[in-house]
Amino acid sequence: MNKRALIFGLCGQDGVYLAKLLSDQGYEVHGTSRDKEMANTSGLRRIGVLDDVTIHSAALLDFRSVLQVIDDVRPDEIYNLAGQSSVGLSFVQPVETFEGIILGTLNILECIRFLKLPARFYNATSGEVFGNTEKPANETMPFQPRSPYGVAKSTAFWTVANYRESYGIFACSGILFNHESPLRPSRFVTQKIVRGAVDIAQKKTDQLTLGNLDVSRDWGWAPEYVDAMARMLRQDAPDDYVVATGVSSTLTGFVEAVFDCLGLRWRAHVETAAELMRPTDIRVSVGDPARAKAKLGWSASTKMPHIVNRLVDAELERRAGKADLRAAQ
Questions:
Q1: Which helix (H) or strand (E) holds 135?
Q2: Strands 28-33 and 120-126
Q3: Which residues belong to the active site?
Q4: Angle at which helices 104-115 and 148-167 cross, to 10°
């Protein structure tokens, strides 16, 4: 029989690409949305995988709801990609961020324990747990988060580690640094930049207002990063892994690359505003993917300049009515 996977957070960027990957590998793929009748399936449709997944209703903060769907599906692998995913929004909605990330993770782990299910569990955490990284962060670097999102992801990480050690659950955390795709919502700064620059190129506006341009981030390509997730659950023993390119680029460099793709001079169109600055921010974020390369055989092949080209091309195609993203993977 084919393996069966259950993805919490199916309709988000990573959930969509993971569903595609697992479906292509012969998995029976199930996923959750708070209300399956109202699920935003546009991403699944755009990459041609909607007909290959089964969607269930489940609320991650409702233990009975999580228990029901896990018991119904009885998956071999469970992926937790759900919860509030915006660092900026976590400053505005810290309680929702904490509840969704921490309690949601705990509910899944408790259901696995309660059902005595021999499922392997992947939990998505973030490079935000490290805070500023003066050198590339590896799995042994202390956590020093600088946002409610980072604090919540840190707590979820240690919850997973505790259940792994205390109850013998095959549970892993992927410490993923920034990873982008055309499926990112517009509230993320990368998509804000791409869409704003295309608006300027198409004469819809003349200015783009951003926050702090001096930060540096380690940007990767989301379809590659979900491959690392799947590989973690195929190891002989559970472990945690940093997933990153190992290269950090400034936001200024990202902006310049986007505008260059469109033949524009970014300085003529971009301004900064104090109200878009975060209360605290990470100046430099970069990861060390050496363990992932050595143990998983995984490394990132798409770096920032190529990512920018793909994002701009995808946005132009979307506006031209060509929304099929299967070629963008």
A1: none
A2: unpaired
A3: 126, 128, 149
A4: 10
238 and 254 housed in the same domain: no
If asked whether residues 143 and 274 sit together in one domain, one would say no
Q: Is residue 111 part of a domain?
A: yes
Residue 140 belongs to domain spanning: 4-180+219-243
**Residues 201 and 233 grouped into a single domain:** no
Contact 292, 248 (CB under 8 A): no
Contact in structure between 19 and 7 (CB atoms under 8 Å): yes
Q: Are 70 and 6 in contact (CB under 8 A)?
A: yes
Nearest-angstrom CA–CA distance, 151 and 159: 12
106 with 213, same domain: the answer is: no
Same domain, 94 and 11: yes
8 Å CB contact between 269 and 262: no
Question: Do 13 and 157 lie in a common domain?
Answer: yes
pLDDT per position in the chain (329 positions), as tens? 689 999 999 999 999 999 999 999 999 999 999 888 888 999 999 999 999 999 999 999 999 999 999 999 999 999 999 988 788 888 899 999 999 999 999 999 999 999 999 999 999 999 999 999 989 999 999 999 999 999 999 999 999 999 999 999 999 999 999 999 999 988 899 999 999 999 999 999 999 999 999 999 999 999 999 999 999 999 999 999 999 999 999 999 999 999 999 999 999 999 998 888 778 788 999 999 999 999 999 999 999 999 999 999 999 999 998 655 544 44
Label residues 296-317 b or e (16+ Cβ within 10 Å = b).
bebbbebbbeebbebbbebbbb
Residue 77 domain-assigned (yes or no): yes
Same domain, 255 and 112: no
Same domain, 76 and 26: yes
User: Nearest Cα to 127, choosing from 113, 115, 145?
Assistant: 145
How many domains does the chain divide into? 2
The residue type found at 195 is: R
Tokens matching residue 306: 């190529």
